[in-house]
C-alpha cells in the first residue's frame, strides 16, 4: 500500500422495511421528515428494501418498486418488492459528486403510496 492510498471503508448495509405505513427501520420505527436515514460519506452503501406487509389478501397483490434519486438527477431503481420477491437492493457511493442527500420513493401505484414518498437519506 502506498502512502497515498487510503484503507477502504467497510461497506454499509441497511435494511428498510416497506409497507403501507411507509418506510420503517428494522425495529418498525418510521423514517420521515424528522427522522432521516443517515449514511457515512465516501462509503459504499447497500440499501435493501424488504417487503414488510402483513400477509393479508390485500398485501398479496401489492407491489413496490423504489427509486433513490439525488438532487443532481442521479437515480437508481430497485426491482419489484412483493410477496414473491421480498427483497431488492440498490448500492451507491454515498456523497459521490458532492451529493449530500437522496430521496427514496415508490414509483408504483401501491397501497400506502402516500406514505412511501419521504425517505430522506442524508450523507454525514
UniProtKB/TrEMBL annotation:
Domain of life: Bacteria
Protein's name in the database: Uncharacterized protein
Organism: Nitrospira defluvii
Amino acid at each position: 500500500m502506498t502512502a497515498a492510498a487510503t484503507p477502504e471503508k467497510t461497506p454499509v448495509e441497511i435494511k428498510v422495511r416497506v409497507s403501507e405505513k411507509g418506510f420503517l427501520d428494522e425495529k418498525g420505527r418510521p423514517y420521515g421528515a424528522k427522522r432521516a436515514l443517515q449514511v457515512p460519506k465516501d462509503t459504499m452503501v447497500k440499501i435493501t428494501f424488504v417487503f414488510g406487509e402483513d400477509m393479508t389478501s390485500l398485501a398479496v397483490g401489492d407491489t413496490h418498486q423504489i427509486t433513490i434519486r439525488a438532487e443532481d438527477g442521479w437515480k437508481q431503481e430497485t426491482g419489484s418488492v412483493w410477496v414473491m420477491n421480498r427483497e431488492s437492493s440498490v448500492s451507491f457511493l454515498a456523497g459521490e459528486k458532492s451529493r449530500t442527500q437522496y430521496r427514496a420513493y415508490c414509483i408504483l401505484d401501491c397501497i400506502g403510496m402516500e406514505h412511501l414518498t419521504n425517505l430522506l437519506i442524508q450523507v454525514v
